[in-house]
Every structure is written in C-alpha cells, then in structure tokens.
TrEMBL record:
GO terms for biological process: monoatomic ion transport. SUPFAM superfamilies: OMPA-like, OmpA-like. PROSITE patterns: OMPA_2. Residues 224-342, 348-466 form the OmpA-like domain. It comes from the Bacteria. This is Peptidoglycan-binding outer membrane protein, OMP_b-brl, OmpA and OmpA domain-containing. The keyword Nuclease does not apply.
C-alpha cells in the first residue's frame, strides 16, 4: 500500500503542476487509453477468507461514440491473499463498460458507468471463473486537451462459483482507482469565445498610458490614392482539406485575370472558416487554404509570388451567424484583397470597394470643409456610375480624448460626409449609412503626430451589388 500511496501523491502533484494549462474535455470519435492503479475491497461476509484492501493495476481502452457516451474494455490484475495461509493467488478481471460523461465539454468531467464481465482466480488447486456486474462513476480532470487525471470508484457484484463457496453465491466488493486518460483523434472542439475587452477608460493627465498593443492592419484597409478591390470567393473545399476543387477554379480566375490585366496590383489572399473545430485547427486550415490559392495563382496565371501574400484568420472574422448551415457556408470563404493604384472608375465593379478619403477636420469638430469636395466626389462619381451600389462611410479618430467623446465625434464626422454626398451630389440617402469607430480601429501608433494623423480618417466601403 505504501507504493500505491506514493503513486497517488505523484499524480496529485502532476495535477497541480499542469492545472494552469487545463483545457476541455471529451470529444466524439476519440480513442482513449487509461492506465490506473488502485485498491480492491472484498466482501467481509462472503469472501472473508481473503485479506482486505489489496492493491491492483489495470488498463482501460475506450472509444467516444459522442461527446457524452463512450464504451470501455477494462482489464485488471491483483494478488489476493488468504488470511489463514498467507497464500497468494492471481486475480484477473475483464469487463465491458458503458460510460456517460455528464459535463463532456468542461475541464472537470464527472461520469457514470456500468457494465459486466468476468473474474478468473488462478490457484494451484484449480482455477475458478466468476461472472461480475458493476456500477459506479468518477471524475476526469483535463490537464491538457488530450491528457486527464482520472479517479474512479465501482461497486461490484461477484457471482461466485469457486470451490470455496457452497454452490453459487454473491459477493459485494468495491474497487477504487486513480490513473491517467490519454485521448487520441476525434472531432476537434470549437475554441471558447474570446473574452470581452472592456471599454478603455480615459487616463488622468498625470498617469502614463500603457503601451499600445502591436498593430495588425487589416488587408482591406485602403491607403490614400489607392483602392482596395475585394472579391469574395465561396468555393468549397473538402472537409479538413486545402486542395482546390476543379469547380472552384472559375472563381479564382476572377483574381488571376484581373491581376494579369493590371500588373502593378498586389493582393492579400485571406482564408476564413466557420466555427466548427478548435481555434488552432481553424487558424491552420484557413492559412493552408489561402496558401493553396496563392500557389494556384502563381502556377496557373504566372502571377509573381512577390505580388501575393496569404493570411489565415480561422473563424475570427465571421460575416454571418454560425448558428445556421447557411451562415457557416458564408463564413467558409476566401477573400482576395487587391491593392489598386489607378483610376478605379475604369475597373469592372468588384464585390466590395474600399477607398480612403483624405479629409482634415478642425480639432474636436465634425464640419466638412468645402476644399474636400473633390475628395468626396470620388465616392459620388463611382456610386453614380454604378447606381445599385450602397456604401458605409466609416469615421475613425486617434486616441486623444475620452473613448466616449471619440466615438461620438467619429460618428458625427461620418454622418456629415453622408450628408455632404446627399446634399451636394444627389446620392440617395437610402444608399448610404454612417458608422463611427472612435479610436478602436487604429492603423498606426498614437505616440507620434504622424501616427495620430493616419488614424484620423474617413473610409468609404462600397458594396457593389451589380450585374457583372
């Protein structure tokens, strides 16, 4: 028993050491291997001739049919000792259990189990074979996605048939164990939703603001005098694959032909997925699919690789609700974000066009100055040329002032640009909307005047619902 106690203590220490990286839980389609050690208590009445609380070891082999239901083959071995003679005999048990995981997707997974099988006692006077039935349960503490510490207790009924019992009798025994469970394969779980980021609070003047986090400028963010020509490709990939299907190649041809026609353009190929599966799995899958499209453009259309880059976003940028099959389908997409440095009016309309408007506002004000008429005219001319388009005018600020003030100011500036398009160019108001983002979508650091100037911007995002 001293050895058993030492092993249990070591396992407990392992739990404390790994608890900080614990994840969730059981998953459909997974195989499991669960070695364990423990003890066995014999019936004081029916098997009183055996010494109580004998150490045992064993192995469970399992398969999860669903997140909640599993089956396990269980085998154990121990040495039973007769009290009178101190003679040892080998006891082998084997059974099939059905397991119900109560909280399958949590870090701590309690479960219930029941099953049956047999026990063989090997004695020099002859072997005996008993039938067994058992029920019980336990708990699994997941230390990683694939490793759990497991504690288990069972109440066993032994249908005795050996030479020590008179005829057939029932013994009621107990088995308790501690072990590890290792999972292999199975369906990946979706990552838990990201924590909500609290709205930043305005810092007092005497307090030094915390360093700004690293920038990740969206590929579709336009720069002055350039446009972002955005094409959404909804071709299907095989499940968990990044190989381009033949029927998907016509979609990619839109990008290849456009970039061949305009050789000064560059493009970012974005990969996006729905939310089925873990965060890391989807991130890797979306990156591989984006790279597959890049490779296809290089090999089939001769586009220089230096003009292309691939970026996988996994399920972090959905455009539809993942609660429905239709929403998931929309989210499984490739976005081609093409940077265009030429007269956009001569270009066949894309799915979406993004352009930056270089407007300067007075500090703390939202009035549109008349000298920026020609800048705003770029949006108006395009929308007049393609009269089924709609547009969102986005307002952005630097981080000077409180978050509430910046959000209100950016909304008002965007709304005033909408009003200017309506009043001066006759664009129908129903085709326009305004959205203020305050300082939440910076494209530069705010610690220099130049960086703050870049963040004070107006973007026009034009949705091109046109016949091509």
């Amino acid at each position: 028993m001293k050895k058993l106690t030492s092993i249990i203590c070591l396992m407990a220490l392992a739990v404390m050491a790994l608890a900080s990286i614990a994840q969730a839980g059981e998953r459909a389609g997974a195989f499991s291997i669960s070695p364990f050690v423990g003890g066995y208590g014999f019936d004081d009445d029916r098997q009183a001739y055996f010494k109580q609380n004998r150490p045992l070891g064993g192995l469970r082999l399992g398969y999860d049919f669903t997140d909640h239901f599993a089956a396990e083959l269980v085998g154990t071995y121990m040495k039973a000792e007769y009290k009178a003679t101190k003679h040892n005999v080998g006891v082998y048990s084997y059974r099939l259990d059905l397991v119900y995981n109560i909280l399958a997707d949590s870090q701590v997974v309690p479960y219930l189990a029941f099953g049956g099988g047999g026990t063989t006692i090997r004695d020099e006077r002859g072997n005996s074979h008993d039938g067994t039935a058992e029920a019980g349960g336990g708990v699994k503490f997941f230390m990683t996605d694939n490793v759990a510490l497991r504690a288990d207790g069972r109440y066993l009924v032994d249908f005795m048939s050996n030479h020590l019992s008179r005829g057939r009798d029932l013994a009621r025994n107990w088995e308790y164990s501690l072990g590890l469970t290792f999972l292999f394969g199975g369906r990946e779980r979706a990552a838990a939703p990201a924590e909500t980021v609290a709205t930043p609070v305005e810092q007092p003047a005497a307090v030094t603001p915390a360093p700004e986090p690293p920038l990740e400028v969206p590929a579709a963010e336009p720069t002055p005098d350039h446009y972002k020509y955005c094409i959404t490709l909804h071709g299907e990939f095989d499940i968990d694959k990044a190989i381009i299907r033949p029927e998907y190649k016509e979609e990619i041809a839109q990008v290849g032909n456009f970039m061949k026609k305009y050789p000064t353009t560059t493009a970012v190929i974005e990969g996006h997925t729905d939310n089925v599966g873990s965060y890391n799995h989807n991130q890797d899958l979306s990156q591989r699919r984006a790279e597959a499209v890049v490779n296809y453009l290089v090999e089939q259309y001769g586009i220089e690789r230096s003009r292309l880059s691939a970026k996988g976003y996994g399920f972090t940028r959905p455009i539809a609700d993942n609660a429905t099959d239709e929403g998931k389908q929309k989210n499984r997409r490739i976005e081609a974000i093409i940077d265009c440095a030429f007269d956009v009016q001569q270009v066949t309309p894309p799915d979406r066009l993004c352009m930056a408007l270089v407007l300067d506002f007075d500090a703390g004000k939202a009035d549109v100055k008349s000298q920026y008429r020609n800048e705003i005219a770029k949006v108006a001319d395009y929308m007049k040329r393609y009269n089924t388009t709609t547009a969102v005018i986005e307002g952005h600020t630097d981080n000077t002032g409180s978050p509430e003030k910046n959000m209100k100011l950016s909304q008002q500036r965007a709304q005033n640009v909408v009003n200017y398009l309506v009043d001066n160019f006759g664009i129908e108001r129903s085709r326009l909307s305004a959205k203020g983002y305050g300082a939440t979508r910076r494209i530069s650091y705010n610690n220099t005047p130049e960086g703050r100037q870049k963040n004070r911007r107006i973007n026009a995002v034009i949705d091109c619902v046109v016949t091509k």
